[in-house]
Each structure stands twice: as C-alpha cells, then as structure tokens.
Amino acid sequence: MGGSLAGLLAAHVLAGHADRVTVVERDRFPDDGGARPGVPQGRHPHVLLMGGQSAVESLLPGFLAELRDAGAPRVGMPTDMVLWQNGRWFRRLPTSTYIYTGSRAQLEGLVRRRVLANPAISVVEGADVVGLTGDASRVRGVLVRDRSDRSGDGRAEPRALDADLVVDASGGGTKAAQWLAGIGAARPHEETIDTGLAYASRVYRGPAGVLDGDTVGYYVYPGTEQIHGGGALPLEDGTHLVIVSGLRGDEPPTDDDEFETYTKRLGHPPLDRWMADAEPLSPAFGYRRTANVRRRYDLPGHPAGFLATGDALCAFNPIYGQGMAVAAMSAVALREALADRRRTPTTRRVQRALLGASRLAWDISAGADRKMPGAVGNALDGRSTDRVTGWYLRRVQERSPGDAVVGDAFRAVLHLSAPVTALFAPAVARAVLFRAPAPTPTEPPERPEAP
Fold it and tell me: How far is CA 435 from CA 95, 398, 402, 442, in A?
C-alpha cells in the first residue's frame, strides 16, 4: 500500500521472495518525473542522509552514480555550508559526511524507474485502499477502490485484492488502525511527541557567483535556545529551496512578503544578503504535520500477514531529514530478515526488524523534540538514564561546531551512518569530558578551512 520510496523499496525486496508483488498507489505516477500530489511535503526540502545512501546503494547498485549524473547536489558537511546554531558559527572543517539535497520528486522518480523495471512488480495506480480482508488472526488482502471509476452515487464499489502479505507503506496518514479494527484485529499502540513545529518553503534563483562555488548553502539548526531554523539548500536545477521553521503559535507565514520578513528571525546575515538579491520562483508553501509518531505493531496480539514500514510505522519530525534514509534502511532490514536462514521470518519477527531500523532516528528526533518548549504527547517521559545521557549529549553538541573529532562522530550519528556508541569512543569521550569547547568563528566563515 503506497508507491513512495518506502513502498517501492519494500516491493523491490519482496520481489525476490514472491511470484508477484502489486503496488497500490492512490496517485498516478507523473510521466515527467514531477511531484506527486500524494506527497504533501513534496514541495519542501528533502535530504538523503549518509545512512540512507548506503542503504539505497546496497539495494540498487549504481544508484548514487545515477543520482549524481542527474544533477542532484552532493553537499559535504560541514565544509560546503555556512552553519549556525545557538549563537555559534561552525568551523568549515574537512568533510566527514555528505548529503544529497535534490528534490524528492527527482530521487523518487529514479528509484521508481529502477524498481518497476522488474516484471514481477506491477502497479495499480489511481486507486485507494479502503480496507483490509481477513480476520483477527491473519490479514489476507486489501479492498481497493478505483478513484476514476465513479458510480451514480459518486463512489465506486471496492474490489478485493488477495495477498499472502500486505505491507502498509501509505505514509503518516495511514488508516491501517481503523482497517485492522474493521476485521476484528487489534489497533497498534501509538507513541507521539509533537512540538507544533511548522515550516514554509519557497524556491529562489540566487545571483550569479553566489552559492555556486566553495559555499553551496546556508543553514540554521533549531534547538531549545534557537527555536527558529532553516536556510537555503541547493536543488538539481541550480535553484535553491529556502525553508524556515517555527514552533506552535509562531508558525512561518505563507504570504510571500511576510515569508521574507520571517526569514530574518534566523539571524543569518549571509542568507539575508543572498535573499535580498535572489529572485523568487514560486509561492511560499507551508506544512504543519510534523509530530513524531511510532506505531507498535511489534507488540503481541497483531495479526499475521501484515507489516508496516516507512512513515506508516514511524514518522519523524521532517526538520531532521530522516524519512527517506529510514525508508531505505527499513528495506534493507526487510531483506535481511527474509534472508536469515537461522530464523523463520514470522510477521512479528520481521516487524521487529523494521522497527529496529527506525530506532536510531526515533531516538534522535524524539529525544530532541521532547526537550523543546511546548512539546506535547504521550511519549514525553524519557528513561531514568536520560538525565545523564542528556548531560553528555549537551556537551557533545557544544563541542561539535569547533572540534573535528567530536563533530565527525556527532554528524555520523545524526546522519544515521554510525550507532550512538560512536559518541562514546575514547577520543570523543576525552574531548567531551575533559576539554573545553574549541573556539569557533566570530563571523560567518566565507571559505572552507584548509585540510
């Protein structure tokens, strides 16, 4: 259910274990590679973190070269960006990790072309899943309604599509809980943390000779002391997508003039100067559904034959840029669980593997958001060890803008390419525990530091 990145990559994996895989997608895929209406945040920035890059490449060998050939910007961190957080400019140290900042539509279109070339995978486009078939012990298929086939009362009759396995990749707006209840099965327990963060984005073309050399973008990281975040990130066509975010009660406006005024709250002088000379190419678009939501299908009592992945399983505050990476990492987890000859791939065992693939991203996103002012939800209470861990992580964050050892480890974890234990490696721990934060630039650094 769902033909986005999570659904496509899950279908790719399942095609190695099934005679036929059917992807049911509510939209019709665009012929020109443009954005799908069913991606509500598609107009906003998307980044592919390092952990996601490794995962996609292992699933679709050669994909990253194809992505670069298509013009997707590959941005070295922290070298290529002018970064600011909590009153400190980051040193532009040698690159320790990369992100891709091209549009969601471009990346998803390239994945779709690769995945749907497999003859074992077919697509039902322009169709809504409106329910499940089966009972409390096992899901046996879905009910599909064609969106273009309307009867006299305006609603087409649903038809059953039988399946040995149903995978929900329909995104954060999934209705699987009520569909499961409709066949007598248990609803999943939901864990939520919501800061009320909202953001708005607008496409600009900047002046020639700016943001096209040593510096390709600007960014301000939000935090407890800096509640506004955002900046300018490069797209594949040479334009930049400007994003700005704020919390509940201080949401960024979508009025074009007010949008530009709001960006000045970031306190990023180079961004202000760049925007003064940049040409807006689109209206400002807003997005407000940014809660962290985790659905616990791994707990006892859920039916066999049903799995959830992607945002349908674990949705993160999009400001951390984790969604596409976790979708790919979940597909790798699915592949490994199905290929494990030592264990029978029961529904619950595979669902646990999928949840495990999202755990680091959840710990980062939920852990940061539960500290934000005004956060609400039933998962705000942390573990008893969080106070000590929080003290250590605050010291990590204080040192990451100026210390190469700490900064490299911190970025590796944030970009989902290393476990949290990387922050406790001896060299990192010595810097965190026994050294004061290294000096950082007093002005925005115009150029990268020499290696």
Answer: 23, 11, 12, 20
Q: What is the pLDDT of residues 249-308, one digit of tens each?
A: 999 999 989 999 999 999 999 999 999 999 999 999 999 989 999 999 999 889 999 999
Provide Rg for the chain, Cα atoms. Answer: 22
Question: How far is 263 from 229, CA to CA, in rounded Å?
Answer: 9
Cβ–Cβ < 8 Å for 82, 240: no
Beta-bridged to residue 300, according to DSSP, are: none
CB atoms within 10 A of CB 130: 15
Cα distance between residue 193 and residue 189, in whole Å = 14
Query: CA–CA separation, 280 vs 89, rounded Å?
Result: 27
- What DSSP character marks residue 155? -
DSSP state of 27: S
The number of residues in the chain equals 451
Question: Does this model's pTM top 0.85?
Answer: yes
Distance CA 14, CA 12 (A): 6
Report the half-sphere exposure of 436 (CA within 13 A, side-chain side).
Answer: 2
Q: Are 97 and 52 in contact (CB under 8 A)?
A: no
**Which amino acid, residue 127?**
A
Q: Is the peptide bond before 78 cis (omega within 30 degrees of 0)?
A: yes
**Helix/strand/coil for 46:** coil
Residues 62 and 70: their CA atoms lie apart, in Å, by 13
Of 124, 168, 131, 162, the C-alpha closest to 146 is: 124
Locus of tokens 């810097």:
431
Decide: residue 75, CB within 10 A, 0-12 exposed, 13-18 middle, 19+ buried. buried
pLDDT at 408: 97
Smallest CA-to-CA distance from 111 within 23, 6, 14, 2 is with: 6
Q: Label the pairing between strands 217-220 and 21-24.
A: unpaired
Q: Whole-angstrom Cα distance, residue 366 to residue 317?
A: 8
Placement of tokens 């007598």 in the chain: 184
Residues 8-36: tens digit of each pLDDT:
999 999 999 999 999 999 999 887 666 67
